[in-house]
Amino acid sequence: MEYSFLARGHENITSHHKSTFEITTDKTLTLKGDCIIGVCSNTILNDLPSTLKEKIKTDNTKIELILETDNAHDSIIGFGCSKLTLNHPTDMVCRKSDFTCNRTLMINSNKAARDLDKDLINDLKKGCNLKVTIKI
To answer: What is the top-level taxon of the source organism (predicted)?
Structure first.
């Protein structure tokens, strides 16, 4: 099962955060948002298909998140959890920890913002389009 959506890079992407990365529908980004790697997302957590959400809300479901620009890509592995609500109106956060809140898409991720492919981040700093694919 997979689902794809689009977001965009932004000149203020720094990708320095050590435990999370985030994709948001917000159109702007300050330098304080060091976990944000994508803005202007055309999808929120509530938009995910119900069958996908059910799988994500199941403990230990393996989730692969694929991030792609025209010139680069990266793949992140994390896990679902029965504590996830998947109902934040603007943000999707992938976490290396097992912390959950309504912004969390997956936990126990193998990568945070600072671990992502540098070519991908450089594309995003230029404002490139970002394709995000969630695979279960």
So the answer is: Archaea
The structure tokens listed for 85 are 């609500």
* Model-wide pTM > 0.90: yes
What class has domain 2-135? Answer: mainly beta
Q: Centre a 10 Å sphere on the Cβ of residue 57 and count the other Cβ atoms it contains.
A: 15
pLDDT in tens, 9-60: 999 999 999 999 999 999 999 999 999 999 999 999 999 999 999 999 999 9
Phi, psi of 93 (to 5 degrees): -120, 130
How many Å apart are CA 31 and CA 36, to the nearest integer? 9
- Dump pLDDT digits (tens) for 49-97: 999 999 999 999 999 999 999 999 999 999 999 999 999 999 999 999 9
* Sequence-separated (6 or more) residues with CB below 8 Å from residue 85: 101, 102
Residues listed for the chain: 136
Pairwise CA distance, residues 84 & 53, whole Å: 9
Q: Where are the domains of the chain?
A: 2-135
Q: Cα(129)–Cα(40) distance, rounded to whole angstroms?
A: 10
